[in-house]
Amino acid sequence: MEMIRSFVSIKIPATPAVKRVQEMLKEIGGVNVSGDVHLTLRFLGDVDAKKIKDLSGRMRSLEKYRSFNVSMKGLGAFPNTKDPRIVWIGADMGGYFNDILSDLDGMLDASSIDYDQKPFKAHVTVGRVKTPSDGLIDLLKREKNLETGSFLCSEIFLMKSELMQKGAIHSVIGSFRLAKE
To answer: Tell me, which fold does domain 3-177 have in CATH?
Structure first.
């Protein structure tokens, strides 16, 4: 049985503000800065390839939804800003997003795919902390209300994630274009 490590996401455009955050993190050091910037809607983990194929077919029905706006604001960290492990930019999902997420969950259930069912917290991971520093903690405090812009989400992706020594390599399994506004 072939297993595929996978997730469902939207791509984040490389805006000047996102690039600026990445540069600030690189300057501080101790953070692996993500090159592939995306917003994970659902992390699926290792899933049987047959179930992924079934899910991909079901996800075509997402194309009935209209594109929606995503606003990005604020720099934060998981589990918290005093002991950061993951650095993120906050996101506010507009339009039909909650309906899309609900439909996606139904598709995952129908495809018998287990997924992380924690309450959804919209965020864009921009770095993974290797060594926390006072500089990073200061940056997180200083930029907690950072405005990083907005964009129109017009496509949802089913992704494969291959773990390598230098980080994950992501490739598209399926893309689902949303209707124009």
So the answer is: Cyclic Phosphodiesterase; Chain: A, (3.90.1140)
